[in-house]
Amino acid sequence: MDEKELRALLSSVQNGSTDVDDALMKLRMKPFDDIGYAKVDLQRGVRTGTAEVIFGAGKTAEQITGIAGSMLENGQKTILVTRLDKEKAEQVRMQAAGRWQAEFFYNESGRIAVIGSCPRPDGIGRILVMTAGTSDIPVAEEAAVTAEALGNEVVRIYDAGVAGLHRLLAHLPEIMDATVIITIAGMEGALPAVVTGLADCPIIAVPTSVGYGTSFHGVSALLSMLNCCASGMCVENIDNGFGAAYFASMINHLKGYREAEQ
Fold this sequence. Notes:
This is Nickel pincer cofactor biosynthesis protein LarB. The chain is an alpha/beta fold. About 40% of the residues lie in helices and about 20% in strands. It folds into 2 domains: about 25-115, Translation Initiation Factor IF3 (2-Layer Sandwich), CATH 3.30.110; about 125-260, Rossmann fold (3-Layer(aba) Sandwich). The protein is built from 12 helices and 11 strands. Strand 9, helix 9 and strand 10 (about 205) form a beta-alpha-beta unit. It has helices at about 5-15, 20-25, 45-50, 60-75, 85-100, 135-150, 165-170, 170-175, 190-195, 220-225, 240-250, 255-260, and strands at about 30-35, 40, 55, 80, 105, 110-115, 125-130, 155, 180-185, 205, 235.
């Protein structure tokens, strides 16, 4: 049960369509499901507004399907699986099509899957996902799919780095229209600083491990972003598209944000 379902349940009690005892029974659900190799958090959606997400790296396909199965059996409608390789994804797909009878979507570039249906966008605006180069797209796709699975409208702009500044300036309307922007860059990590100087919304910078030797697998881009002089930017960890999208979704669901601007 997530926050929306909890509100719907409480509203149904208020209007008399649900019995108090029935509602109490639903709220008394066990807080987690112990399946041996994992304790599946069943009430995270109530506490934080977003259900638990499965981190696929380091888990077997059987463990992933076991955790997802527990979540589905306990009423979770949308399940996100990050860092999922193609071979494991195929095994999860077979389980979804067979036993679960659930929708399944896999983005190979972003190594991310959605089990079940994505919710309709209900954020206050749009999340813009931008990359400096084509090589940054895998991290961007992880971010974009995560944001969509969390109920956001997403706009993608790829290969708009500062090596050809005209490519970035061609997208000023999208930049000015966004509620929050995720900027993703490797090499020297310059893109977020430039975008922060153009936009009137929060900027989330994600360094990637793209680059030559002295990029140190993304450390150079990370340090560039941390030392940015433009105000209004926060920085995520190297290659952490998921974390950036989660944070962006929280911003995009702050209902008083645009009202305060108006």
